[in-house]
Amino acid sequence: MSRLGGAFGVALAATVLATHGSYRSPDLFAHGYRAALWLTAGLTLVGIATATALPRREAPTRATTAPHLNQPRPQRSIPRQSGVYTGGN
User: Fold this and answer.
1) Tally of CB atoms within 10 A around 17
2) Are 33 and 23 in contact (CB under 8 A)?
3) pTM passes above 0.70
4) Percentages helix, strand, coil for the chain, rounded to the nearest 5?
């Protein structure tokens, strides 16, 4: 979705640049570029306003994402021996 929005924004900015500006002189190009930047600033503000107006999702808790992590670890039945590799535990 963000790629589509980015492509759409670039297309709109290029259209505004071509409509309000020209490559014939630096002043005309700057005029079109300024209009395109105002458009992108406006689109950014609309996006920020939309994002803040939408309801927030609650962050998933550890219990809902991995319930097995909340259970206590089983006790070892065999005592560890010093100097013997036991698999990293």
Assistant:
1) 20
2) no
3) no
4) 60, 0, 40
* Best CA proximity match to 5, nearest among 37, 47, 38, 66: 47
Cβ pair 58, 69 in contact under 8 A: no
- Measured between alpha carbons, how far is 56 from 29 in angstroms, rounded to an integer? 42
* pLDDT for position 18: 92
pLDDT tens per residue across span 7-61: 988 999 999 999 999 889 999 999 999 999 999 999 999 999 999 998 888 776 6
Residues 6+ away with beta carbon under 8 Å from 69? 62
Two tokens, residue 81:
């021996």
What's the full length of the chain, in residues? Answer: 89
- d(CA 17, CA 73) in angstroms, rounded, equals 63
